[in-house]
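Changelog-adjacent note: as of this version, every example in the card shows the full chain rather than a window. The one below runs 698 residues end to end.
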Amino acid sequence: MTRACKLFLCSLCFFSTFLYAQSFTIEQALSAPYNSQLSAAPAGGSFAWVTNLEGRRNLWTATKNPGSDAYSALQLTKFTDDDGIEIGDIAWTPDAAWIVYVRGGDFEFPERPAPNPALISGGVDQQIWVVSAQGSEPRKLADGRAPTVSPSGDTVAYLVKGQIWAVSLKDAAAKPQQLLHTRGSLSSLLWSQDGKRLAFVSDRGDHSFIGLYSLETKTLRYLDPGTDHDSYPAWSPDGKSIAFVRIPYSKHEVLFGPKRTGLPWSIRVVDIDSGKGHEIWRAKDGRGSVFYEAQGQRELIWNGNASIVFPWEGDGWLHLYSVAANGGKARLLTPGEFEVDSVAGDRDGKTIVFSSNQDDIDRRHVWELKTATNRLTELTHGEGIETDPVLAGDGESVAVLRSDARVPIRPAIVLASGELRDLAPQLLPAAFPSASFVVPQQVILSSADGMRIYGQLFLPKNAEDGHRHPAVVFFHGGSRRQMLLGWHPMEYYSNAYGMNQYLASLGYIVLSVNYRSGIGYGEEFREALNYGATGASEFNDVLGAGLYLRDRSDVDAAHIGVWGGSYGGYLTGLALARASDMFAAGADMHGVHDWNLELGNWLPAYDPAADPEASRTAWNSSPLSSVGTWRSPVLLIQGDDDRNVQFSQTVQLAEALRKQKVEVEELVFPDEIHDFLLHRDWIAAYSASAIFFERHLK
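Full-length structure tokens:
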């Protein structure tokens, strides 16, 4: 047994002495299923999604009952273990009779070996399966990922080690075949409407191409190739053209620092027969010149064959625009100071649905755009959060993922009246303590340099008892994230929201901070000057959060803690290294402690010696550069198969703090990755953090 495990188990005895103060446990707070990857059937009115119930991941579907607006939900897979094996890449057959999915592998870094935090002796494979939408025994199709079903429904194209393979859906005895051998790492497989060709993206490192493979002639072409990054291909409805985004190459790629301007990106259209491509639109210089995606099903949506809808930050906010397919001026479709995301369209692009924070900046609601008239309709509203909308194949039904302050994200249908009806209400455990949760309040505070910062305040139920309470500041990761006034749509931050509720139940005043360089508040906020590795300007927000709590009459200023994971771990490290007089203790989960080390993780060619001034700034922006003034105790938590933040970040920080005689506790998960795959590891990490804060803040 490791030292960290002994520490955790021994602490449980101590922890039991204050359980009486809470109304629920961390296990109960995280006992509801996390639902994701909502997908609409291409025909009829069915939907599918993945449910993670305490580490048991399964595929579900909901089908509309004939003659009513009610739905029947069905669990299609029967996995019963918290084994860390993910399910994803859902693909329907055109007739909506079958669902293809992937189980196993690393969905964020698909070319890396499959993670195995459960230490399964036989290892974990990445496999493609097919199951009847009405329920059947799943059948393995092949090893691979990213399946896409042909328009005829008889073939599945997919990827293995960055190359395209295919397997028959109809013939169970047929063996998978590799369609072509080509350079580059391939992605974004897209069938033509007649099923005779496959478009894809071929990433070559400093450039990428749009490829087109003919299954009839077994020939490969690259469309309108150049020296830039071509991506996001989209077939025109008539199958005669492909539109794509061209992003200019930049020798000095900026990571973890502001990039407000660059060589402008553009949209190009290629005629399939002639192979000739031409530019139909180009971003202007300055604001909006750098491409930023809307993170929907498609970045480019054809409106018939006449125009293309796309995302752009031309006015400093991410909005939808439209441009004629033969070129012209872009027309703004969603004006206002808000951002759109999760964009989806129907087959012909006549109806587009998306979520945005219009008129409700710390929530998300769903809107519908009719492209023929540019009419916008708000489909959902209120104090909940609705996102990831999908349009059913029947052309009538819209489903969303919804949550609120008390109940986590789950799939729901949007009725004609605007009412939301959960597709599988039976998934929520009867004992889930939703009534015991507090409703967070929106707060607007001033950063140390005067910038306006948004946050969510969780007040314990005894907050008005006249006493001063210990407090905890939470920083999300990313940093391209935004915490909301309710359970978060992303699993990592859904868990974090549950942890903040748990800390509030233990008597802490909890402040969750949406610091600069996050999303939701426009390009200028996201691309804040000198953030991250270019100056750590977010530390002003760290100080602002601490000062805000110090000034509250219900906070014990001597007992303010801080916690966060990933980028939030980075800010936790900065808080403790540079403001130990303000933050008495911290829980740092897989945080970045040396930017020069982290930059090399994402840019293999990164050489700190190539630009000494930039590397010196990166070092000075790192917690390790200020370790000499770090005095507060810290709990360090990380999995040692972390692929986002090197485990050596924690190793090096632990060494440096021990030399400083700083109190360091550790909780290490062998073979676990960045976004913990095992539910029991989340429980262990959060329990250890609560124990740690109990000792140092109470």
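Structural remarks: Residues 560 and 583 are 5 Å apart (CA to CA).
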